[in-house]
Amino acid sequence: MANNGFNHFDSTGKAVMVDVSGKDANGRTATAKGTITMNAETLAAIQAGSAKKGDVLGVARIGGIMAAKKTAELIPLCHPLNFESCTVDFTVDTEKLCVEAMCTIKLTGKTGAEMEALTGVSAALLTIYDMCKAMDRSMVISDICLWEKSGGKSGHFKRTEAGHG
Q1: Tell me: the pLDDT tens digits for 141-161?
Q2: Choosing from 10, 19, 89, 130, which is the catalytic residue?
Q3: At what angle do helices 40-48 and 56-69 cross, to 10 degrees?
Q4: Is 130 a catalytic residue?
């Protein structure tokens, strides 16, 4: 059985961690985005800092960073990476009643940072949900995606507003 172009399978079809020992380390950056939509009262409480559990976005930022650092423990076959930078930022949209989260990872290494950025943004959004679920259990987490990446063999990728890069 061939690996059909998937690099986490060997020539016999067994799942394997990709061997990066022969690769050169280079600069890599990855940014992921996602959104959580909620009712107006919940969004207002987040903005005012009046949610019962405290500073929702501050805690979500820390949750996203902590999760990004644990990616190799959560995702099978993912290499542990040492970041040089991990940021989690938020944009509040009062018209669409949502918070957009963005996680950016920067590192010098032999393999990418995409999974770490995706894990970070996912955990940040889940933290918002956890902190606000008593106010609004109908919140929806959506549109989690790789927004941009650079470095590595595959080069630069930037998602367009319409979808794929």
Answers
A1: 999 999 999 998 888 999 987
A2: 130
A3: 90
A4: yes
